[in-house]
Amino acid sequence: MNILSKIGNTPLLKLNKVVESSDAEIYVKCEFMNPGGSIKDRMALRMIEEAEKSGELKPGGTIVDQSTGNTGPALAFVGAVKGYKVQLFLPAQLSSSYDPADRIRIAKLFGCNVTTIDLQDHISNFDELSDMERAAAFVAIRMTQCYQLGVSDPSFWWANQL
């Protein structure tokens, strides 16, 4: 048995005081208690196992993806346990309310190679963009980089979470 077998085996907790009076019982699944600490551990494991089965991800290969949240660290965790290298593209800063520093630190703790992208280096009118426009631009830039890696080197498998 290895730690990956513990993914998804997180507790259900009954909430007793969600609403004042209700006949419904409300439970929450504590996905944050996955071994990698991410609510996306289950998804990352499934994606990687499917890529292994299909032959898209080969032993010694590298997992590549772009992320702004929980999927990147989850891919880094599962990839590390399975012996893969992981390359992630993460934002240096996406909006005034989002700081990816914790996600970057977590991914690096699992041995992941993280490339941060500063949108201001790619978009001349960055300050004029809304948060939604910045997010869309960032996804487009990262997806292009992931695609280029996947095309240029067959040992790279692009998880392509979107």
UniProtKB/TrEMBL annotation:
Database matches in Pfam families: PALP
Residue ranges constituting the Tryptophan synthase beta chain-like PALP domain according to the UniProt record: 5-129
Keyword Chloroplast: no
Any one GO BP annotation for this protein: cysteine biosynthetic process from serine
Record key words, sorted: Pyridoxal phosphate
CC cofactor: pyridoxal 5'-phosphate
Lineage: superkingdom: Bacteria
InterPro entries on file: Cys_Synth/Cystath_Beta-Synth (IPR050214), P-phosphate_BS (IPR001216), TrpB-like_PALP (IPR001926), TrpB-like_PALP_sf (IPR036052)
Gene3D superfamilies noted in UniProt: 3.40.50.1100
Protein name: Pyridoxal-phosphate dependent enzyme
Biological source species: Candidatus Desulfolinea nitratireducens
